[in-house]
Design brief:
The chain has 132 residues and is of the alpha+beta class. The protein has two domains: 59 residues, Ribosomal Protein S8, Chain: A, domain 1 (2-Layer Sandwich), CATH 3.30.1370; 55 residues, 2-Layer Sandwich (Dna Ligase, domain 1), CATH 3.30.1490.10.
Length: 132
């Protein structure tokens, strides 16, 4: 695992677990990862999540969601802003993911939120990833 981009590692763990049809996945925790996980649960891309204290940094346990045909609800995850190349957008240029069938997750001055929520609040920020 790469230690230079923990968000890319987080997305890769979820992507690999959904492709392997796992029911849950454990990921090392951070505040940003917890906020992204809350957004994924609010937008119904995952069933549930819990924070497990392990005496160090903690672990986020994510329970993945599948449909009736055992297909993952998450079709794809894409990291957009990377440590070597940050992607910032204004509130007028927030990207739409698959014509609003997916979501973009952003960090703004008002916290971590979806792109649609950022447009409603009129704030721009760094586009972290796309989920569809």
């Amino acid at each position: 695992m790469s230690k230079t981009d923990p968000i890319a590692d987080y997305l890769t763990c979820i992507r690999n677990a959904t492709r392997a049809k796992h029911a849950k996945v454990d990921i090392p925790a951070s505040k940003l990862k917890q906020e992204i996980t809350k957004i994924l649960q609010d937008e119904a891309y995952i069933k549930n999540h819990m924070f497990i204290e392990d005496g160090k940094q903690g672990v986020i346990r994510i329970y993945l969601k599948y449909d009736d045909h055992n297909q993952s609800v998450i079709s794809g995850l894409k990291r957009l802003s990377k440590p070597g190349f940050r992607r910032y957008v204004g509130h007028r240029n927030v990207p739409r993911v698959f014509n609003n069938l997916g979501i973009s997750i952003m960090t703004t001055s008002q916290g971590v939120m979806t792109g649609q929520e950022a447009v409603k609040r009129g704030v721009g920020g760094e586009v972290l990833c796309y989920v569809w």
